[in-house]
């Protein structure tokens, strides 16, 4: 048995025993290979190193109260990986290949799936990179698709407790007709200066505005934004936001509990009309927002004064967590049990 402190796991890299790899060469995907190396050898002119041909995903597997391992909405992740690949002209991994590789990676590393009850999960990181050598700006003719996994705890160390966010207007993570809607590494490179400055100023995350006119909210660095107003779940619609699978799920759960769902532009000026706000994503789950500070004006909007999440965010969080851990009925068939 492994000797892991499941309760205090951070969200970070954790060495496990195996990863799974598949190369695309001569116009086709090869055999799925199992590796115990943490390293990749590649040509120094690989396009991922020069021109950003890189896309990734994030999927979680949970050990349920019944001991079974459930993978949450992996097919949606596979389809988003395909859109990301297509968006930066990479070879597109078939959904079946994505499935075969994540399940193989989970089974090979089964002892690293955290037990039920620690608020931890196994995070799967599928990764697609251009490995073919090019010096001119063009897509590679060879690719590597791989999946590594590791046990993780909450993305924000507070867990399901309100976190303070900063809203900014002097950096953009993505342009309106750029790559914000797909999960490619360049978007994260573009977000780093704002994120790290935010952290240094005391904010675990920042919220980016839309880059066209900066009047609307796009999303948080690694997560979508939502607000609760009266009986409505409101979340921004924008061409430069990553369509979050967690947000897609929360919109369904919101409907299930009788809320109205609004997917539309959300003006920065509307922030102070919400009663609750949160960030959502695979890593972030639901991270309630305590307050949002506008870095330009100093204006503060406060959603939690008592250090607790609001009632609707709590209800949605419990529903989502319950489905993922098998304590709530999976009425939408979001889970795949690992056999
Ligand atoms: N937005 C960005 C920029 C992200 O990186 C992520 C993480 O995957 C999300 C939103 C949340 O998406 P999902 O719920 O599919 O993990
Ligand atoms: C995820 O939620 O899976 C993410 O990819 C967020 C972040 C770690 C980039």
Structural class category: alpha+beta
Number of strands: 18
- Looking at the structure, the CATH topology of the largest domain is D-amino Acid Aminotransferase, Chain A, domain 2
Strand content: 25-35%
Q: What overall form do the CA principal axes indicate?
A: globular
The total count of helices amounts to 6
What is the rounded distance between the termini?
Answer: 21 Å
Global Rg: 20 Å
Task: Please identify the top-level CATH class of the largest domain.
Answer: Alpha Beta
Q: How many individual domains? A: 2
Average per-residue pLDDT, rounded, comes to 96
- Main sheet summary: 9 strands, antiparallel
| N-to-C SSE string, H for helix and E for strand | EEEHEEEHHEEEHEEEEHEEEEHE
Share of helix among residues?
A: 10-25%
Residue stretches low in confidence (pLDDT < 50, at least 5 long) are none
Q: What compounds sit in this structure?
A: pyridoxal-5'-phosphate, 2-OXO-4-methylpentanoic acid
Spell out the CATH superfamily of the largest domain: D-amino Acid Aminotransferase, subunit A, domain 2
Secondary-structure map:
Blueprint: E1 19-25, E2 28-29, E3 33-35, H1 47-50, E4 54-56, E5 59-63, E6 69-72, H2 74-87, H3 95-108, E7 121-130, E8 143-152, E9 163-168, H4 185-200, E10 205-209, E11 217-220, E12 224-229, E13 232-236, H5 245-256, E14 260-264, E15 276-281, E16 285-294, E17 300-302, H6 311-324, E18 335-337
Parallel strand pairs: 9-10, 9-16, 13-14
Antiparallel strand pairs: 1-2, 1-3, 1-8, 4-7, 5-6, 5-7, 6-18, 7-8, 10-11, 12-13, 12-15, 15-16, 16-17
Bound molecules: pyridoxal-5'-phosphate (PLP) and 2-OXO-4-methylpentanoic acid.
């Amino acid at each position: 048995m492994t000797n892991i402190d499941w309760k205090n796991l951070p969200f970070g890299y954790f060495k496990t025993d195996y990863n799974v790899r598949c190369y695309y060469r001569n116009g086709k995907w090869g055999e799925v290979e199992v590796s115990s190396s943490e390293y990749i050898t590649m040509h120094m002119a690989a396009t991922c190193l020069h021109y950003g041909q890189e896309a990734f995903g994030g999927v979680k597997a949970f050990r349920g109260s019944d001991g079974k391992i459930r993978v949450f909405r992996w097919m949606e992740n596979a389809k988003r990986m395909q859109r990301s690949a297509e968006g930066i002209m990479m070879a597109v991994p078939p959904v079946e290949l994505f499935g075969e590789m994540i399940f193989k990676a989970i089974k090979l590393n089964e002892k690293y799936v955290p037990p039920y009850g620690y608020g931890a999960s196994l995070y799967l990181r599928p990764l697609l990179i251009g490995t073919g050598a090019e010096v001119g700006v063009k897509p590679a003719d060879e690719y590597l698709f791989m999946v590594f996994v590791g046990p993780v705890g909450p993305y924000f160390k507070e867990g399901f407790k309100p976190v303070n966010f900063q809203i900014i207007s002097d950096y953009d993570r993505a342009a309106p007709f750029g790559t914000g809607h797909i999960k490619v590494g360049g978007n994260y490179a573009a977000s780093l200066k704002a994120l790290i400055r935010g952290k240094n100023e005391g904010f675990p995350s920042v919220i980016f505005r839309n880059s066209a006119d900066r009047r609307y909210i796009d999303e948080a660095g690694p997560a979508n934004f939502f607000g609760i107003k009266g009986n409505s779940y409101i979340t921004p619609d924008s061409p430069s936001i990553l369509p979050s699978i967690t947000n897609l799920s929360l919109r369904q759960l919101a409907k299930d509990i009788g809320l109205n769902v609004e997917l539309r532009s959300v003006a920065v000026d509307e922030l102070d009309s919400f009663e609750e706000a949160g960030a959502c994503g695979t890593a972030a789950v639901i991270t309630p927002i305590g307050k949002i500070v506008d870095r330009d004006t100093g204006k503060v909007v406060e959603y939690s004064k008592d250090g607790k999440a609001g009632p609707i965010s709590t209800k949605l969080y419990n529903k989502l967590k319950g489905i993922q851990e098998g304590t709530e009925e999976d009425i939408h068939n979001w889970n795949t049990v690992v056999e």
